[in-house]
Design brief:
Blueprint: H1 7-15, E1 21-26, E2 28-41, E3 48-61, H2 62-71, E4 75-83, H3 86-97, E5 105-108, E6 115-121, E7 129-136, H4 144-158, E8 163-168, H5 178-185, E9 192-196, E10 208-209, H6 213-220, H7 228-242, E11 246-250, E12 256-260, E13 266-268, H8 282-295, H9 300-314, H10 325-334
Parallel strand pairs: 1-4, 1-8, 2-6, 4-5, 8-9, 9-10, 10-11
Antiparallel strand pairs: 2-3, 6-7, 11-12, 12-13
């Protein structure tokens, strides 16, 4: 079967994740989940009133990528900025509680740590559904001192890193200037990956990118639909413009598409069911797994398969979640449709 790899090889790569040091530079976000049980419809307006149940804070954005690297056995090295606010304090504490080093997260006075608050409701014994989300967003001010501090952390950590991830959500913690800084110090062959919400084409000189289908369409200003030819051409355009050799496209219920220079697209079907529980942060899980697999010596095809399994596991969890090696191992071992 085209695009198939052996489960034995994937399991071996998974074991090699342990101890891999990955720089995770980018925009850290606090994901806040507020849960409630339906009480009644308001007399003031046609809206549902929830009785508060619980509140949960989780790392989002680059923080979620770092959390997934850690959960899979790697050693994340976060570099970025947080505010001197309640959300920044909470985010740093959450990462530290998970055993993640946070010295590379610089506190910026007056900066509001990006915080995405989701309100979910449902019966006590039912799956909670997201009702509304509101975002508190801020952009980092242009600050040469901060830029030098963050560049210094990248320079300091690069020599001992097995790879690096740039996670750009548009808040300003990472810029294309990080690429030459990392290239100058990282070992030859250490993979450099980027995931960017709206600025992918600015990051020239990286090894691989992981856009979703909508982001890829934005890069080429064209709708892809179900056309494999358009998908191939879009990948070729991106690879040519930024000089990378690999594009891994996440396609929701249609799985993933691996695009490599000079090769036909490999379409990888979604693992598990397309009836998901929550897609929050799934792209961060895919990025972390893909990067760890490449840093462990996997081919782009092998890394894509591992990332696909990780994505299939994490979307069955509520909230911003991570995947463990045991869960990934179970998914690989039980598969009967994708692997040989």
């Amino acid at each position: 079967m085209k695009g198939a790899v052996s489960r034995e090889r994937l399991l071996a790569l998974l074991s090699a994740f342990t101890g891999k040091r990955l720089i995770v530079a980018g925009d850290c976000v606090l994901d806040r989940f507020v849960y409630g049980h339906p009480k009644r419809v308001s007399r003031e307006a046609p809206v549902l009133i929830l009785r508060f149940w619980k509140e949960e804070d989780l790392p989002g954005g680059a923080g979620n990528t770092a959390a997934n690297v850690k959960a899979l056995g790697g050693v994340p090295l976060p570099v970025g900025a947080i505010g001197d606010d309640e959300s920044g304090v909470a985010l740093r504490q959450i990462l530290q509680e998970r055993g993640i080093e946070t010295a590379g997260l610089s506190v910026v006075p007056g900066y509001a740590t990006p915080t995405k608050t989701r309100v979910l409701g449902g019966g006590p014994h039912s799956i909670k559904q997201q009702i509304v989300r509101y975002d508190r967003e801020d952009s980092l001010p242009k600050d040469e001192v901060l830029e030098n501090v963050l560049a210094g952390w990248l320079d300091r950590l690069a020599a001992g890193a097995h790879g690096a991830i740039l996670s750009d959500y548009g808040y300003g913690s990472v810029t294309p200037a990080a690429v030459p800084t990392l290239r100058a110090k990282m070992s030859p062959g250490a993979p450099l990956l980027v995931d960017s919400r709206h600025g992918l084409l600015r990051f020239t000189g990286v090894d691989a990118v992981t856009p979703n289908e909508e982001e890829l369409e934005e890069c080429v200003a064209d709708r892809l639909g179900d056309s494999t030819e358009k998908l191939r051409n879009a990948g070729a355009q991106v690879m040519e413009r930024i000089g990378c050799s690999t594009v891994l496209v996440t396609r929701g219920s249609r799985g993933m598409a691996l695009l490599e220079k000079g090769a036909e697209p490999v379409l990888i079907p979604v693992h598990g069911t397309d009836q998901v529980a929550d897609v929050t942060g799934a792209g961060d899980t895919v990025l972390a797994t893909f990067a760890l697999a490449l840093a462990s010596g996997g081919s782009p095809l092998e890394a894509a398969h591992l990332a696909n399994f990780a994505g299939g596991v994490v979307v069955m969890k509520m909230g911003t979640a991570t995947v463990t090696p045991e869960e990934l191992k179970d998914a690989i071992s039980s598969d009967r449709t994708i692997l040989t």
